[in-house]
Amino acid sequence: MKRTEISALGEFGLIKTLTQNTTIFHSETVKGVGDDAAVMDLGDKYLVTSTDMLVEGIHFDLSYYPLKHLGYKAIAVNVSDIAAMNAKPKQILVSIAISNRFSVEALQELYEGMKIACQNYQVDLVGGDTTSSRSGLVLSVSVLGMVEKHKIAYRNTAQKGDIICVTGDLGGAYAGLQILEREKQVFLTNPDMQPQLEGKDFVVKRQLRPEARMDIIHELEELGVVPTSMIDISDGLASEVFHICTQSNLGAMIYEDKLPIAQETYDTAINDLNISPVTCALNGGEDYELLFTIKQEDYEKIKNHPDISTIGYTTEPEKKINLAMRAGNVIPLQAQGWQHF
Ligand code: ADP
Ligand code: MG
Question: Which residues face 31 on adjacent strands?
Answer without folding.
Answer: 39
